[in-house]
UniProtKB/TrEMBL annotation:
It comes from the Eukaryota. This is Putative pectinesterase 53-like. One of its GO terms (biological process) is pectin catabolic process. It is found in: Secreted, Cell wall. Transmembrane segments: none annotated. InterPro entries: Pectin_lyas_fold (IPR012334), Pectin_lyase_fold/virulence (IPR011050). Keywords: Cell wall, Secreted.
């Protein structure tokens, strides 16, 4: 790992609390962000079945527009 990678990592570590949506720093979250977080939707993708969808495209297309919920897409290993 080069020196540039180390300083880049340090910048990202220093900014962790700025993008933490769970409010770990004790600061209050924006109302819309809190609402999206409390109404989270999980989607699973597995090309072998046993999930909500078999393709990533199907999973993404299932998210309605406009959308005010946080959507987490869990993608199983496989060939897509």
């Amino acid at each position: 790992m080069g020196l540039g990678m180390i300083s880049s990592l340090a910048i990202h570590v220093a900014n962790v609390d700025k993008w933490n949506v769970n409010g770990a720093t004790g600061q209050s979250l924006d109302f819309k962000l809190r609402q999206a977080e409390s109404n989270r939707m999980n989607i699973t993708v597995n090309p072998n079945g046993g999930a909500d969808f078999k393709t990533i495209t199907e999973a993404i297309n299932s998210i309605p527009a406009p959308n005010s919920r946080r959507v987490v897409v869990f993608i199983a290993p496989g060939l897509y």
